[in-house]
Amino acid sequence: MATAAHRPSFANPFHAGARVDMHYEVDVGGVLRRVELPFVTAVFADLRGQPADTPERVEERRLIEIDRERFDAVMAELAPRVSFRVPKGLIGESELDVELNFRRASDFEPEAWMRQVESLRPLLEDRDALTPERRATFDELASRICHHESFKQLEATWRGLHRLVTQSECDETLKIRVLSLSKVELGKTLKRYKGTAWDQSPIFKRLYSDGYGSFGGEPIGCVVLDFAFDHSPRDVEMLGELGRIAAASHVPMLAAAEPALFQMDSWQELSNPRDLQKIFMTPEYEAWRRLRDSGDSRYLVLTLPRYLARAPHGDDDDANGTACVLRESAMSHADFLWGNAAYLLAEKLHHAFKIHGWCARFIGLIGGAVEGLPQVGLCHLDGEQRSVCATEVAVDERRRAELADAGLLPIVSRTDLGVAVFMSATVLNRPAQFDDPDATDDARRAADLHYVFATARIAHYLKAIERDVLAPISHVQRVKDWLRTWIGDYADPSPGAPDAFAYPARPFASVEVEVRESHNKPGKFNLKFWLQLAEWVTSSVRPL
């Protein structure tokens, strides 16, 4: 895997100083200290595959911080492994037992993992002396190994994580942490703590208690779930529990939609249905509709389709001027390595946060364009010469709008520009319709990912401020005055004010604060905020 970060050319149109500088100050021994909360992304993924040892209980697992320098060390610590059998097709056994261990990112390159297969090692070392027929047989066997579902799942996960890490400028303000967890383990854990015990779940504790419940804890700003979901009872139940935890923790969760959500076997069938909305109106989708109507579903994002995680092995022979160790043979659509687009959305959120200090302008060509994806072009696919774009299927504008109406967030391949683009900020929630147009508009804004991230960021700061600053204050008016002064620094002043165009940038067009004493909890306060985002936060075009 390449380790160099790709620098996006769709650059920030704002001045480098136009960054949101959200922070607060705390008195430590008479000295004011500045506190700025980092943006922390947690990645939940099956990073171990089929481990040789017995995995520790989910309750005992902790988030592990990862960055470019620590990537291989974290990989070695997690010790990913796969074990399976493939038809051999060479002299000897009819089937070949394959066991592969991965300790660094480069172990997913063909020459590295082939050396772990005893039957392939002699052929690998003498490949230049192989006859064309023998070389073809060698490539076919190696292709069977790297096309095995267990291998592909593990490789796609680690390549997705590797891209996210190498494309993110991790430092004290932006961090990535990982938790190895399979979808089956996640489902069993959520089910075990379902009902009144949900706040005792290790998932909730990793996202909420570890950040809010300890002094100096850093709240999680976003979760990437490297899993795909459909409308099956099991998945709807999982999404409902995840939504509850996400809403309580104020943590948006990014995952993927499964083609089965539309009664499809592959995203290549996406252009077939004439009307997607009719699919969701059948009785089979009643639980799915209830999920979308729940308030918690505002914190759930399902992306589609998958993206091309790497070009086929051997595709770059001519570019390098040397023969590749492996040339993948008998390619079909399923043989390509497809990755979860939630990683790409998190990548764009990271870029936005580093540029703006806020999850702003992460859609459209300016902020939502994903560059550096493999460009395959024409290849021999399913028995004929066909082009392969950076996403599993091309989504036109009409279908993109239909998917957004269905609560899904598609990534659109722009082959003319060599990029894939997120064009909307859609969450799973279906905004309610009211007789009052203002109420309908409020519901629509609440189901916009820009607003979800904004309210989550404010909630994270309020919990930290309550712990560090407001805890000793018992007078409601003093609390209200402090909060109004603090939040006022992040709202646009009136257009005629002297500092109306001053830096740093302000994310809110307007903000109101209400503070009331809690009737059943003396010394505690109930806070309400009304926020309206500034136009620049949600804009997807370059300002004139």
Description:
This protein is an alpha/beta fold and 544 residues long. It has a domain at 36-77 and 152-449. Helices cover 33% and strands 19% of the residues. The chain is built from 18 helices and 19 strands. It has helices at residues 71-78, 110-114, 121-125, 132-146, 149-166, 183-192, 202-212, 233-249, 276-279, 286-293, 317-320, 342-356, 364-367, 397-405, 437-446, 449-470, 476-488, 535-538, and strands spanning 24-28, 31-35, 39-45, 64-66, 81-87, 95-101, 174-180, 222-229, 253-257, 300-304, 307-308, 338-339, 369-370, 377-381, 384-388, 409-414, 419-422, 508-517, 525-533. The strands form six sheets. The protein has a nine-stranded mixed beta sheet, with helices on both faces. The longest helix has 22 residues, at 449-470. The chain is globular and about 85 Å long. The two termini are 40 Å apart. 38% of the residues are buried.
List the helices and strands and how they pair.
Layout: E1 24-28, E2 31-35, E3 39-45, E4 64-66, H1 71-78, E5 81-87, E6 95-101, H2 110-114, H3 121-125, H4 132-146, H5 149-166, E7 174-180, H6 183-192, H7 202-212, E8 222-229, H8 233-249, E9 253-257, H9 276-279, H10 286-293, E10 300-304, E11 307-308, H11 317-320, E12 338-339, H12 342-356, H13 364-367, E13 369-370, E14 377-381, E15 384-388, H14 397-405, E16 409-414, E17 419-422, H15 437-446, H16 449-470, H17 476-488, E18 508-517, E19 525-533, H18 535-538
Parallel strand pairs: 3-7, 3-8, 8-9, 9-10, 10-16
Antiparallel strand pairs: 1-2, 4-7, 5-6, 11-12, 13-17, 14-15, 16-17, 18-19
Helix pairs in contact: 5-12, 6-8, 7-8
